[in-house]
Amino acid sequence: MTQLPSPDQIRRAPKVLLHDHLDGGLRPATVVELAEEHGYPGLPTTDVDELAAWFTAGAARKDLVLYLETFQHTVGVMQTRDALVRVARECAEDLAADGVVYAEVRFAPELHIEQGLSLDEVVDAVLEGFRAGSQGRGITIGTLVTAMRTAANSREIAELAVRHRDQGVVGFDIAGKEAGYPPSRHLDAFQYVQRENFHITIHAGEAFGLPSIWEALQWCNAERLGHGVRIVDDITLDPEGGATLGRLAAFVRDRRIPLEMCPTSNVHTGVCDTVAEHPIGLLKDLKFRVTVNTDNRLMSDVTLTDELARLVDAFGYGWDDLQWLTINAMKSAFWPFEKRLRIINEVIKPGYAALAGG
Question: Where is this site: Important for catalytic activity (predicted)?
């Protein structure tokens, strides 16, 4: 019997991450230190281990809106230039230590201006931190600038993203409470990004269903779907295990629209009860363009190694499956085409071949 990849082996494998929130991935010790340094009073505890447990327990309440409440404290300590540089630098260091060779990390600049930073200063600080943390560590980071779908600043944030496209920003996103805030509310921002020949990914089909996915694709021209897990609502299974795809699901699969899937986070927000029940297994079997992501490493107490190891446990995935998922992600990145090919051919394929052969 072929031995399945172990967590230690997976950690050494070259991995690609497309959906990771900067304010959802802080080190617990950093949250405590920044709160003390900047006089932030709101933490429930200053014990590092207790705080880490509090974040995970708070996020795992089976509801996206409740899940998002935990971010008030991480955002609360990310209001100065030095704090933003530090958090971004540590993010790059942590991802590199986990074997991630390419990552797209997203954040919402409008949440970090409470102490007087301009939107451009916020983006500059984060980009500086990513550059410092990536240097010499074998990781490339592209930044995704996110607008909050519950606010009315999306056009301004879209312009901000485009303004920094040559400094490391690779695309534009909207995030936040999904129900009641459809992507089409921000149509002007998306049309601006399209006119600028820039990239779009949209949180859609996480806590709300097919209409959100349809609007993201057909109104707003999303190139990728953040989560997109509810596309399974357009797939009918027969008693023999056969699958019939509805028109939207067929469109997503036929067009090879990438799904930025985050299994552990989806368990915490109530999409399913266990990773083994997550639709990623079905969607991979049906050959959707599935990618695997962390979403919020602090809140879900997870690394990309953990996510892949849980899929190995749940679905018996071997090295070929993990490489397929990784190449899916690299193909779907917003990095320039020739650089994507280089990472696939010179980093990912040799890396997996060496591990599978060993």
Answer: 227
Report whether 176 belongs to an annotated binding site: yes
| 19 assigned to a ligand binding site | yes
Note down the domain range covering 322.
12-27+86-357
268 is in an annotated binding site: no
Predicted model pTM? 0.97
Domain membership flag for residue 163: yes
Q: b/e map of 149-179 (b: 16 or more CB within 10 Å)?
A: bebebbbebbbbbbebbeebbbbbbbbbebe
Asked whether residue 42 is domain-assigned, the answer is: no
Number of domains in the chain: 1
pLDDT at 62: 86
**Buried b vs exposed e over 200-228: b needs ≥16 C-beta within 10 Å?**
bbbbbbbbbbbebbbbbbeebebebbbbb
**Is-catalytic flag, 206?**
yes
Nearest Cα residue to 303 out of 67, 52, 17? 17
Q: Judge whether 38 is annotated as a binding position.
A: no
* Tokens 């954040």 found at: 107
Please give the pLDDT value at position 63. 82
Average pLDDT, the chain: 96
For 303-344, the pLDDT digits (tens) are 999 999 999 999 999 999 999 999 999 999 999 999 999 999
Q: Is 295 flagged in the annotation as binding?
A: yes
Which of 178, 206, 215, 260 does the annotation list as catalytic? 206
Could you tell me the CATH number of the domain that includes residue 117? Answer: 3.20.20.140
pLDDT tens digit string along 201-256? 999 988 788 999 999 999 999 999 999 999 999 999 999 989 999 999 999 999 99
Q: Would you say residue 218 lies in a domain? A: yes
Mention every residue, 6+ apart, whose C-beta is less than 8 A from residue 336: none
